[in-house]
Amino acid sequence: MAYKNIENYPENASELASSELKALGTVWSEKKDELEKTGVFQEFLKKMQREWAIETGIIERLYTWDRGVTEVLIEQGIDASLIAHQGGFQREEADHIKNIIDNQLEIGEGLFSFIKGEQPLTEHFVRGLQAKFTNHQDTTEAVTPDRRLIQVKLEKGVYKKHPNNPRRPDGQEHWYCPPEFTQSEMEKLIKWYRESEDIYAAEVRAAWLHHRFTQIHPFQDGNGRVARALGSLVFLKAGLFPLVIRDSDRKEYIGALEEADAGELKSLVFLFVRRQKEAVLHALGLEQQVQQSKYADQIISSALEILKGKYAQETRKIGRVYDYAKEIFNITDKHLREISSSLNAELMKVTPPNQQQYNSNITSADNQSGRRHYFYNQIVGVANTFNYYANLDRYRAWVRMAIHTEENFEYIISIHAYGHADNGIMAVSALSARRIETEEGGTEPVNVQPATTDIFQFNYAEELDSTKQRYEDWLESSLAIALAEWKRQISA
Length: 492
Hints:
two-stranded antiparallel ribbon, 17 helices
């Protein structure tokens, strides 16, 4: 397939923006000035930069190991002896890998410095990134006309002089920009990006810039690492976090790039948004640790702010999220009752003779209900699966749809606060389970599992209509997962 010149942003670019990330970014911008000065946040950012430096090399297969090694290095630092011991490398190779990661870590730190200077993106800067990424790399693979792999000298900081079109496993050649057009394509890329900075959301610009750069593939080697650095640069300039693409994202990441090759940028934007949401939520979760580690003078300062009325104003603003939670509860209760009623009518028709009537029913508890504490273990278990703290103290509500046939199946939606602090962020989780009778005469849930691929998060900064629209889509997806599990259980 011949190379296709890069194109400007698609017509639907504005529609690809995430209202959820925009709202989370607003919450973060309101809190980050205080958090950024703390040692807790600085340690969080240091670990995130380490992960970025490690994972960008793993994606390129400069080195490989399991996630456990990465986590050790994130926590303890980039150390050659750890790489050798944990990753199973000879010391000389471990030293070389450490140099690569250190180099990538230095580049990541340099991105922060670049945005502070408010410099525009230039070809010179991009060429410099590639030179830095390949600092410890002297050669790269090339393919001869007779398809033999050879090592050739790697030129750093200059555009390619020979084609670099890889051959896919199916035998087809993937065409990147021919060397003679690389300069003009890169000029267009930089020009179009700089014109878009005040037009499109950061996640759209990051995905577009990343993809169009990889489409050109302007260098002999290091293109993937530079592309992810450029994506990170866009997010950092928007006040967010480095773009971490993990090895576990590899299949989705490559698939999203291939979809972008075909003209659809949505999947790549979605992947970038998910990674940024995770980073922002983790950063906001640091607030509780900061509160626990404040010194007396900071506490006094905080108390004075309360006396000035700032606390009351902030509380009113954050408190909007509890009004949103009531709306989410009502949407859930209404929709599941409609589903259950329709299902109930059909179940009555298929109940075998002399069998207890098949049926479906709904029970629910809002935040004022005496039954709000039900399903504690199941909800906490699902929260642990998604690696967050389900705060069930301040707000807690649930809706349960039960389906009774030969098996007793239940689907539960839980609405609760996200994280330890009263930070204006809430979560909705979903789970399914089979309920069996116990020897004592009661029942207990078994086969408890999430009925969603991700939790639904909402906060006070997003418009209610936007939150409701996102939630209705999420609820439909979750319900489909739950009913598929019910079907599997009755088919077993």
